Amino acid sequence: MRITFYRFRYIFITLLILWIVGIAVLINIHKGQEVLFLEQHRNSILNTIFSSITQLSEFPVYAIIVTILWLSGRKDKALTILSAGLITVIVSGGLKNFFKDPRPALYFELKKSEVELSAVPGVKLNRGYSSYPSGHTMGAFTLFVTLAYLWPRKHFFGVCCIILGAGVAFSRIYLGQHFLSDVIAGSLVGTYLASFSYFYIFKKLSKNKTKKQIT
């Protein structure tokens, strides 16, 4: 356990800091305040930035990374990322159907408040019952934490991966698609799925690869 923590300490410490900050903010605000605050501080530059960042956990990015790894001969890593992505889709859909929490736009409507959440130009505002947890955030943390695990000696790379995951999480709130609680939950589940993908799937694939090379 100590060896594992030390090997991935930069990943764990960065994640821990993000969760502490996120939870600290969460317990000091009312639900929806974070969404409204960011809506009031939108501008065209930030709209473009976060509209792009939010796509980092979507299928095309997974497909590109898997393809690059496969073609470069890192098939075990490619299969690990692919498996992690498929598991995330299933888990995310299952949890959303279980909780069926309203998205921010619908939440304010049901609350019968005078607040009418506006959409960022070019981004469709989801109004369904699929807020908790954030699927994009879950997918981002599954992908980027797994990538950080796969190259444990590249500490700067690992920290950058976690920051990219956090960027996707923040973008979901900025775009009015999720609450802070949604993205925190998504990051926690995503990190767990990344850990499972690395410590079980990748390790198993690596062992099989080693056995084949020996035989």
What do these coordinates show?
This protein has 215 residues and is an all-alpha fold. Helices cover 73% and strands 0% of the residues. The chain has one domain: Up-down Bundle (Vanadium-containing Chloroperoxidase, domain 1). The mean pLDDT is 94. α8 (135-150) runs parallel beside α10 and α9 packs antiparallel against α10 (180-214). The chain is elongated.
Return the domain count. 1
**What is the CATH fold-level name?**
Vanadium-containing Chloroperoxidase, domain 1
Tell how many strands the DSSP assignment holds. Answer: 0
The computed structural class is mainly alpha
* Cα-to-Cα separation, first versus last residue: 31 Å
Major beta sheet summary: none
* Alpha carbon gyration radius: 18 Å
